[in-house]
Every structure is written in C-alpha cells, then in structure tokens.
Amino acid sequence: MEPQSAILMSAQIHFVAFLKLIFPPKPRNEASGESSKSSELGLSWTSHYAFLNISITPIECSIVCPKSLAQELFAPPSDAVGASTAGRTGAIVSPEEFVVMSVEGEGLEAGKRVLELTSPLALAGISIFFITTYFLDYIIVPTKSKTQVVRALEDRGFQFEESAEVYVNPAARHDRNKSSTSSFGTMSPSTPPPATVDELQARTFALLKRREIVPKVDDDIRLVQCAGRRDNSSSILTDEMGLQNGLTRCLVSQPPFLSLTLTPDEPASLLLDKRLIANFDFSRVLLGNMEDFLIPIMLDLEPLPLEASGIVCGLAGKLAGRNAGLNAIEMSHLSTAHTGTVMVEEKDLHHAMEALRVEENNSDGG
C-alpha cells in the first residue's frame, strides 16, 4: 500500500459519522454525473477508502480518514460548534496531515511485534500512530516525517516489497494468526530522543505520573478481534451487506467499544465488544475466534499534546520487552486521538496491572 494522505480527528458525533462512512455514496462519473462502471459492477463499500479507521471507546470517537473526506463530512459541524475542545463537542480535526504506510511485522508475537516496530521510530525521535489490524500493521506519521520513518525501518532490516506494496522484515516471517494495535512513538519533539528503550520506558512512566494518567479497566468490556469475510467470491456482496447491517445495529446500541479499519486491499478488520457479536451472522460474515477475549486497559491521554508519545513503546517495553523476561505478557495496543488502550488476555490482566502500577510507583516524575 503506497503512502496515503490522511487526517486524524476526534469527534462526539460518531453515530451520524459512522453511518455516512459505512454507507458511502456510489462513485459517479464526473463528466456525465452517472454512476461509474465500478459502481455498476458492485465495488465493495469496504474498498471505498484508501484508508479509514474509526474507533469508539468509552473516552472518545477517533477517526483517521482521507483529508478530502474529513473536509466534506466534518468541517461544517466543526465550524458550527467552534474549534474549542471543551467537552469534546462536534468534530475536532488535527491541523497536521499524515501519511499511512503498511508494514508486515510478522515473525514475533503481538506484544514483541509492537515493540519491534515502534522502538526504532521512537529512538529516532519520530512521532507516530500505529494501528495493527487482523491482517497488517499500519504506521501513520506526519507527512513531514515520512522520510525519517522509511530510513528507520530500513535500518532495522525492513524492506519495501513492491508486489504487495508493504514493508516486510525478511528475517522474521511466518503465518500470522494474532493482531495488535498501537500508536504514539516518541516523546515531545522538543525533548531529545532517548538512547535506549529502557530510557524511553522510564520517561514514559514519568510523564504519565506527572500528568496523573493512570491505567483503568472497565470490568464489563471484553473485546474480540475479527475480520469481515471475503473468501467466497459468489457471496461477497451479500456477506459485506451483512457486515454493513451488523455495524448499523451495533451503532444503534451505542457500543462501549468498537474499532473498524477499511483499506482497498484487505477485508474489513474489527475490534469490538463481545456483546456486539450477536448483531452479526458470525459464521457467514466474520472471521476470527469468538472465544478469545481481550481485556482493555485504558489511559486517557487528553492531558498530553497530540504529538507527545513514547506511550506505546514504553508500555510494550515494560510488558513484553527483554526486562519482562519469563513474565512477558502477550499484549496488543490501540491508540486513538486521546486514548491509549493496552489489551491483554484475561489470565494476564492482574499481572499486567500490577506491572504497570509498579512502574508508575517507581517513576521519579522527572
């Protein structure tokens, strides 16, 4: 997937926004005004966008979408309510433009993969968002940092595979069966980047302590990682209509947690509360193990500036890095505009919270 221009935004209008996004207008021929040939042939709605992620958490609704789409759907409401972030009303669009690059971080378990992919960028002083879907990892970086990101990945052994338009690590490839999601990559640009992951980890927890950001768990939320089916060519349109209808029912129920990622090259990827599974005809519409639950540990990052980071790499280093030793925890991560969410298996929840609290207590606040 070639780099795509994107915009990050936070919104509280997720019901209307989500409906507009999952029911996109049919492509039209600009000259004639009629439906385009691709529309007549039934172009999938899941392939409509170069890249789109919309995530609903107990803290916010965060959207990453093409700049033109943000201007079309969200600029008017934003103008109407003003640019203030007070109460997070309306849509707040980041002034920064981003590019999206796909990375195949295979060869490692999810937690170590997060660390493998974020640490070289963090140590290079690059601020990033990092979204891992059911199929691929996506690095979302400010347009101005693209060259640095490419250099950092290549220095770590990643190569751009033109046939698949994806960065891969030839030294570490295998069949992928788990996924994770993550985001920010460095500290504030005004702070010199740390020399080691251990130093980055220490800075991260000191920053969280200074801003009084603590990990919290919602005992009612259990997450399932899954994807839309696209394995039967004779029923693709029917299956994706079922996915569309299921997502609509999820929205009507005001979901506590739902994340959707759409790209042209892969089926839809979802991370959603297990109670929402009943809205889908699972065996026909979704891929994935509905019995593997993840528990979200959430951090409200609103006190931090958007470009502040080190969060993902710092948490991954603590839970899945070399210092964790035999106690390494399998983790994944979803970062949105103002929320960092670490996800662990239920059996690891107590140990993960204990590790994070110990690290928080050990931080010197400097």
Radius of gyration: 20 Å
End-to-end distance: 40 Å
> How many strand segments?
16
Number of helices: 11
**Coarse structural class:** alpha+beta
- Low-pLDDT sequence parts: 28-42, 77-89, 173-189
Mean pLDDT: 76
Helix-strand topology string: EHHEEHHEHEEHEEHEEHEEHEEHEEH
- Shape designation: globular
> How large is the share of residues in beta strands?
15-25%
**Helical residues, percent:** 25-40%
Main sheet: strands, sense, barrel: 12 strands, mixed
What is shown here, in short?
With 366 residues, this protein is an alpha+beta fold. The protein has helices spanning 14-22, 37-40, 67-73, 75-81, 110-123, 146-155, 197-210, 236-252, 282-285, 311-320, 349-362; strands spanning 4-11, 52-56, 61-65, 91-104, 129-132, 137-142, 159-161, 166-168, 216-217, 223-228, 258-262, 269-273, 286-287, 294-300, 331-335, 339-345. It has eleven helices and 16 strands.
Structure description:
This protein has about 375 residues and is α+β, with helices and mostly antiparallel strands. It contains 11 helices and 16 strands. It has helices spanning about 15-20, 35-40, 65-75, 75-80, 110-125, 145-155, 195-210, 235-250, 280-285, 310-320, 350-360, and strands at about 5-10, 50-55, 60-65, 90-105, 130, 135-140, 160, 165-170, 215, 225-230, 260, 270-275, 285, 295-300, 330-335, 340-345. Strands 1, 2, 3, 4, 5, 6, 7, 8, 10, 11, 12 and 13 form a 12-stranded mixed beta sheet that branches. Strand 5 (about 130) and strand 6 (about 135-140) form a beta hairpin. The termini are far apart.
